[in-house]
């Protein structure tokens, strides 16, 4: 019996677990912890040891197993993995190979380098924001933006808030607090991310007066419900289409009714397509996507659209229209809570200027919409060649694909594209996709027909090389990847 008690499996595994102090004796571990800051490092170490305690409790780890683990550097490795995971969480640049150009989950529109430069400079310095530099008089932060938006859209004035959802809230609250808002039943949309128009109306303190039916609404329906209403609202059904036996009231007709009854009218466009001078028209490619310019011309008081959808700027909600209506929006105390910061305004001003300078085609999201198939084919061939040159067993095939504008812009439209279908003898598509997401930079792709598919339409400048780098890392062991990351530091996240 005494003999058995000395056998390792009868040993108390908890007593083999090192204390925090003992772990810190290892200079390599100690220096690693200091890289992230001692406090956080100790917390992660504690978590690592707690996880092991949990394994022991669950009967998954006995003394012999623990001894073995400790002997071959298992604690260092586990700690390194935990540090790495923590370090790699959070925002970082990625390669979008999904084929969805405006992908809300991936940050929507990448802005033009000159807009990005303006944003960086604004972030790093004091700026002329609420002062007019020539007179020194107090100014409004988006006065210049208002001028630029007018020039771009033909509207009398403009104002900008945090996003288009905020623009809708501001409009409802300004014109219809405590009153009815007349909307067609065919337009009671959910935009995604829990933005449902009826719920938003309730929170904005207005009453929904839904008119017509899902598929047909006539001007008489609006007229009947308009008595005492604060606002007549039209919502562009961005992310779906009602087809078949349908009828809807045009913006011009609604604007005329509002004018006749002295009730303000507003149009939530969602995407906001612009066709500025000297830019390649998108209209043909994007089906029936309405133009901001046309919407303004119909005479509605307020037209709303996002800054980071088809416009291709930073996140914002832009409201353009009649001067008097815009002034009322500005006077609403809610505007103060929804307004933009200097960084976004700097990016938006530069984005609008680029359009006005005739450089609209350079705006990255727009450039990706108009990129020609032959250019995409060349990119696909380069990617396929690079991946094969890694000599890591990747099999590639250049294929015809369909990309999408995304973010509810032109939901029924696809853009012809090229992709590279990738397979690997040992890594299944899900496994490969997971390793690519963990690489530096992470790559997001889609899986079709049991293969990983890289769509070329969403690649930005330099992404072909980044893709190759990421694929090379899918072949590394955890330890190698860890070493690579440790030598690059956290700044590398934005390379
Ligand atoms: C996208 C969209 C919104 C929301 O815009 P955000 O800028 O994402 O807040 C609102 N209305 C419509 C019709 C949209 O398409």
Q: Number of helical segments? A: 22
Q: Main β-sheet, in a few words?
A: 7 strands, mixed
Percentage of residues in DSSP E strands:
5-15%
**Residue runs with pLDDT of under 50 for 5 or more positions:** none
**What would you report as the Rg, rounded to the nearest angstrom?**
28 Å
Global mean pLDDT: 91
Measured as a percent range, the helix fraction is: 40-55%
Give a brief rundown of this model.
With about 500 residues, the chain is of the alpha/beta class.
Walk me through the topology.
Layout: H1 2-5, H2 13-16, H3 20-24, H4 27-36, H5 38-57, H6 63-71, H7 74-88, E1 95-96, E2 100-102, H8 113-124, H9 143-153, E3 157-161, H10 164-176, E4 180-184, H11 197-203, E5 207-211, H12 219-225, E6 229-235, H13 251-261, E7 265-270, H14 292-297, E8 302-306, E9 317-321, H15 323-331, H16 333-338, H17 342-356, H18 364-370, H19 373-389, E10 395-406, E11 415-423, H20 429-438, E12 443-444, E13 446-448, E14 451-455, H21 463-473, H22 478-488
Parallel strand pairs: 1-12, 2-10, 4-5, 4-6, 6-7, 7-8
Antiparallel strand pairs: 3-9, 8-9, 10-11, 11-14, 13-14
Helix pairs in contact: 4-5, 4-7, 5-7, 7-22, 8-17, 9-17, 19-21
The chain binds pyridoxal-5'-phosphate.
Pyridoxal-5'-phosphate (PLP) binds at residues 163-165, 168, 191, 235-236, 238, 268, 270-271, 306, 317, 408.
């Amino acid at each position: 019996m005494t003999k058995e008690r000395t056998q390792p499996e009868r040993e108390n595994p908890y007593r083999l677990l090192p204390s925090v102090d003992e772990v810190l004796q290892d200079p390599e571990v100690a220096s690693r912890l200091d890289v992230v800051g001692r406090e956080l490092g100790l917390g992660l170490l504690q978590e690592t040891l707690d996880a092991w305690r949990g394994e022991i409790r669950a009967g998954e780890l006995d003394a012999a197993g623990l001894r073995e683990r400790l002997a071959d550097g298992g604690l260092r490795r586990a700690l390194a993995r935990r540090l790495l995971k923590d370090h790699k969480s959070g925002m970082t640049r990625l390669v979008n190979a999904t084929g969805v150009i405006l992908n809300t989950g991936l940050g929507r529109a990448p802005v033009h380098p000159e807009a990005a430069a303006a944003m960086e400079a604004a972030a790093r310095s004091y700026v002329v924001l609420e002062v007019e530099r020539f007179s020194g008089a107090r100014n409004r932060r988006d006065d210049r933006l208002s001028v630029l938006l007018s020039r771009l859209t033909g509207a009398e004035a403009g104002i900008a808030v945090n996003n288009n959802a905020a623009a809708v809230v501001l409009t409802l609250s300004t014109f219809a607090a405590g009153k009815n808002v007349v909307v067609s039943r065919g337009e009671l949309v959910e935009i995604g991310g829990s933005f449902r128009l009826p719920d938003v109306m309730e929170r904005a303190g207005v009453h929904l007066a839904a008119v017509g039916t899902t598929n047909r609404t006539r001007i008489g329906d609006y007229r009947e419900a308009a008595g005492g209403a604060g606002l007549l609202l039209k919502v562009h059904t961005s992310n779906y289409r009602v087809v078949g036996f349908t009828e809807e009231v045009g913006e011009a007709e609604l604007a005329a009714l509002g004018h006749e009854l002295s009730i303000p009218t507003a149009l939530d466009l969602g995407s906001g397509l612009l066709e500025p001078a000297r830019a390649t028209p998108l209209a043909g490619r994007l089906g029936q996507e309405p133009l901001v310019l046309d919407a303004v011309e119909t005479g509605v008081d307020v037209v709303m659209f996002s800054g980071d959808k088809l416009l291709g700027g930073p996140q914002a909600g832009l409201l353009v229209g009649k001067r008097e209506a815009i002034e009322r929006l500005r006077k609403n105390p809610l505007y103060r809570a929804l307004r933009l910061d200097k960084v976004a305004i700097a990016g938006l001003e530069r984005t609008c200027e680029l359009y006005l300078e005739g450089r609209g085609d350079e705006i990255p999201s727009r450039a990706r919409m108009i990129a020609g198939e032959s250019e995409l084919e060349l990119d696909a061939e380069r990617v396929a060649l690079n991946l094969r040159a890694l000599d890591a067993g990747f099999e590639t095939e250049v294929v015809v694909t369909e990309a999408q504008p995304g973010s509810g812009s032109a939901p029924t439209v696809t853009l012809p594209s090229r992709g590279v279908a990738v397979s690997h003898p040992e890594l299944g598509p899900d496994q490969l996709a997971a390793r690519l997401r963990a690489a530096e930079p992470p790559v997001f792709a889609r899986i079709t027909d049991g293969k990983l598919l890289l769509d070329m339409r969403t690649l930005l400048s330099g992404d072909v090389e980044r893709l190759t780098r990421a694929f090379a890392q899918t072949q590394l062991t955890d330890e190698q990847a860890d070493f690579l990351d440790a030598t690059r530091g956290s700044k590398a996240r934005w390379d």
